[in-house]
Amino acid sequence: DVKVTQSSRYLVKRTGEKVFLECVQDMDHENMFWYRQDPGLGLRLIYFSYDVKMKEKGDIPEGYSVSREKKERFSLILESASTNQTSMYLCASSLSTWGTEAFFGQGTRLTVV
Amino acid sequence: SQQGEEDPQALSIQEGENATMNCSYKTSINNLQWYRQNSGRGLVHLILIRSNEREKHSGRLRVTLDTSKKSSSLLITASRAADTASYFCATEATQKLVFGKGTKLTVNP
Questions:
Q1: Do A80 and A13 form a contact (C-beta atoms < 8 A)?
Q2: What count of other Cβ atoms lies within 10 Å of the Cβ of residue A69?
Q3: Strand runs labelled E in A26-107
Q4: Cβ of B53 under 8 Å from any chain A Cβ?
Q5: Per-residue pLDDT of chain B (109 residues; tens, 9 = 90+)
Q6: Burial of A76 per CB tally in 10 Å (0-12, 13-18, 19+)
């Protein structure tokens, strides 16, 4: 079974802190994605990566950065956390871009206080 | 910007009834996918339909795609209480997988 693992299920951070959300997949997938999910807004794409060291902005990249130094790991970085970044963060991976399903992690519920 | 928009936002039915959810999108796509999310969890892939396909079945699921109308529908037949979840459509184009806001389905026993 494909497994996508997010490092934390729940996280509480203070405003201004630098926050790292880690995601690891074990199926040698090319693509990895970070989404945030908010009530009434669905899933919004923050960043995605289609290869090691490659990244593309999604629809809401402001206030975030990403790192993909190894194929299996995709990190989301909140440079200076703010309360409006309180959300559920979902990581996903897929084998390739064209016509393959995405596998999701269990999500990280981040609260910024 | 979100590509897909699901309709209705919420749907409540009785066990045994059929549930139909619709998805509309704006631009050309390579394929469209449907996912399910149980409360507070990650999403699970249900079915993928390519842009050159019109209909696809998987168990109790039936998906249609009309590229001329830029719309898709997901039909769940003979629903069960365990089908209670949020359902999302996702469109794939230009290397992105973009989701809609979802339909919240409640199946009452």
A1: no
A2: 9
A3: 31-38, 42-49, 56-57, 64-70, 73-78, 87-94, 102-104
A4: no
A5: 556 788 899 999 999 999 999 999 998 888 999 999 998 788 999 999 999 999 999 999 999 999 999 999 999 999 999 999 999 999 987 778 889 899 999 999 9
A6: buried
**Among candidate residues A56, A53, A58, A55, the one with its CA nearest the CA of residue A71:** A53
Query: Hey, are the CB atoms on B99 and A33 less than 8 Å from each other?
Result: no
Distance CA B95, CA B51 (A): 15
> Judging by beta carbons within 10 Å of its beta carbon (0-12, 13-18, 19+), is residue A16 exposed, middle or buried?
exposed
Residue B4 and residue B100 in contact, taking contact as beta carbons nearer than 8 Å? yes
Record: contact B96-A58, CB cut-off 8 A = yes
